[in-house]
Amino acid sequence: MDFTWIPEYQNLLLHGVFLTFLLLAISVPLGFGLAIFLAIAQVGDNPIARWISKGYCTFFRGTPLLIQLWLIYYGLGSYLPYIPGLRASFLWPVLREGLFFATLALTLNFAAYQGEILRGAMLAVPKGELEAARAVGMSPGMILRRIWLPRAIRIGLPTFAGEVVLQLKATPIVFSVTVMDLYGAAYKIRQDTLLVYEPLLLVTVFYVTLTFVITQVFQKLENAVPVRR
Amino acid sequence: MMHLGKALVVAATMLATSAQAEIRFGVVNEAYAPYTTKDATGKAIGWEIDLMDAICKELKEQCTIVDVAWDGLIPALESKKIDVIWSSMSITDERRKRIDFTDKYYSALAGMIGAKDGVMGLTTEQLNGKMVGIAVSTTQSAYFKKHFADIATEKSYATVDESFQDLASGRVDYIFADTGPLKELLKTDLGKECCEYKGSVEADDAILGAGVGGGIRKGDNELRDKLNGAIKAVRANGIYAEFSKKYFDYDPY
């Protein structure tokens, strides 16, 4: 075992950790926000919204994340430069980077899975509670905000923790679109130093640590919002 | 117990001799035209394969090709799955710590391609602030770090092919790689349309001078000497020049 390369690649590794964390920190909240709309559309009465939401979830859950990422980066992304003026605009430094497309793909994918889970959780909220809310005269919007969604989110919480961990483990594919995340850093170190196992071991330790932190945070969250059954 | 021991020794000797009977060439899986690539049936073809055939003919040895991913080449060599790395591997000091090399069999000329629109060359002013696509951990990457790191930005790709997509869509301004594969990319439909050769970089013998050689297990001097002799022989008898003409308009040595 040879770990003498760590000081030399310290900055690359730390930047990789930062990017991996950034991808997670952006895609999880944004994806969750989108998932709320997807879930409401699916349990709601509007057939068009239901159809769109179902189609979205089926597409993003039914195709590999890698292919989605490449469709967005190499497909959609390669047509962006043809939009007149875009290359000269202030948006171009962001739009030319793989990070933007990686975040987009991860967010859209996370939303699809989360939307389906949330839909199930919403259907699992006891009918009696919703009827009680109606009986005291709450409007449908208020029921959604005060009773239905909060209860559904609480029911789905243990599953969300698992989904965030899965999302973390999905991030290494962003290296395929030039984002030098933690795995990207390990890949470069492996190529430079010709050490196969050591860089991989180091990033493994990091991923396990982050997973541990995520599960702990959700455990705290679950304990903080007790539920009476 | 004695019998078993004897049988094992016999078996081991047989294995050893059968391994000697052929030379296993580790060839990279990923396409690296024109040096190594695969035809429609999956058969390895390219300049390096032609060179291998010429060398094996010269040595009158049986040669087999083993497909290995680029990352796995050195581990495969060390674990004796292959005997030679034959995949455009530049001779560098970092690699010399792990493996030995034959004499060089071609020189990696480093150059850049870029989009046709926009007058760009390779001067310091022209490269200033530009984004350059480079395959991870290549000699070009080392060259870039030494000469261009202060003026331009490096964007890392796993392979040259992937960076080419991004050059076509304008995400990088240049690709910096070996001239052979770059010229091959320019021959494609997309390459003809979008891009052109911008020039070769100035020589830096410390980084680019050692050229490309076959990777050999440390201490496998017998094989190294045999291959060195054969490389010299095919250079001398004109076979090298003959098959090189099919791929290049210059002498790659």
Describe what you observe in this structure.
The complex is a heterodimer of chains A (229) and B (253). Chain A has nine helices and no strands. With 229 residues, chain A is an all-alpha fold. In chain A, helix 2 packs across helix 5 (98-124). The radius of gyration of chain A is 21 Å and the shape is globular. The N and C termini of chain A lie far apart (52 Å). The mean pLDDT of chain A is 92. Chain B is an alpha/beta fold and 253 residues long. Chain B has two domains: 2-107 and 210-245, D-Maltodextrin-Binding Protein, domain 2, CATH 3.40.190.10; 110-208, Periplasmic binding protein-like II (D-Maltodextrin-Binding Protein, domain 2, 3-Layer(aba) Sandwich). Chain B contains twelve helices and twelve strands. Chain B has helices spanning 2-20, 47-59, 73-78, 93-96, 124-127, 139-147, 160-168, 179-186, 189-194, 205-208, 221-236, 239-245; strands at residues 22-28, 37-38, 44-45, 62-68, 84-85, 100-106, 110-115, 131-135, 153-157, 174-178, 195-200, 212-216. In chain B, the strands form three sheets. Chain B has a five-stranded mixed beta sheet. Chain B has a five-stranded mixed beta sheet with strand order 9-8-10-7-11, with helices on both faces. In chain B, helix 6 links the parallel strand 8 (131-135) and strand 9 (153-157). Chain B is globular. The chains are: A mainly alpha (229), B alpha/beta (253). Chain A binds chain B through residues 74, 77-81, 87, 96-97, 175-176, 178, 180, 184, 187-188, 190-194, 196, and chain B through 71, 74-75, 94-95, 97-98, 131, 136-137, 155-158, 162, 165-166, 168-171.
